[in-house]
């Protein structure tokens, strides 16, 4: 599962294109399914959660990417468990 970071308007950014290219590369190299999970505002949400938990300054900055990644994975697993999991990436 790869986090897919589109722009807020839903269009692809350079990073979005890089993630799609990585998904293509993984799909060619393995028989395992490759999923793309929408991650819009995940860093913002992670920062909010960390602040609510009392994190500040360096501690918050050091943990925000980890917290965002965990939130993206939790969303993917929750959607998978409920049957709303996205289809595996099929490529271009």
Describe this structure in words.
The protein is mainly alpha-helical. The chain has one domain (2-81). The protein has helices at residues 14-29, 42-52, 57-81; strands at residues 2-4, 36-38. The chain has a two-stranded parallel sheet. α1 links the parallel β1 (2-4) and β2 (36-38). The longest helix is centred in the C-terminal third of the chain and has 25 residues, at 57-81. The chain starts with a strand and ends in an 11-residue tail after the last helix. The model has no long low-confidence stretch (mean pLDDT 90).
What's the layout of helices and strands?
Elements lengths: L1 E3 L9 H16 L6 E3 L3 H11 L4 H25 L11
Parallel strand pairs: 1-2
Helix pairs in contact: 2-3
In short:
The protein has 92 residues and is mainly alpha-helical. The chain has helices spanning 14-29, 42-52, 57-81; strands at residues 2-4, 36-38. It has one domain (2-81).
Q: Based on Cα principal axes, name the global outline.
A: globular
Query: What is the number of E strands?
Result: 2
Q: How are the strands of the largest sheet arranged?
A: 1-2
Number of helical regions = 3
What's the Cα radius of gyration?
15 Å
Helix content: 55-70%
Average pLDDT, all residues: 90
Class by alpha and beta content: mainly alpha
Q: Give the ordered list of helices and strands.
A: EHEHH
Query: Main beta sheet: strand number and arrangement?
Result: 2 strands, parallel
User: What is the count of distinct domains?
Assistant: 1
The unreliable regions are none
% residues in beta strands: 5-15%
Q: CA-to-CA gap between the ends?
A: 17 Å
Oligomerization state of this entry?
single chain
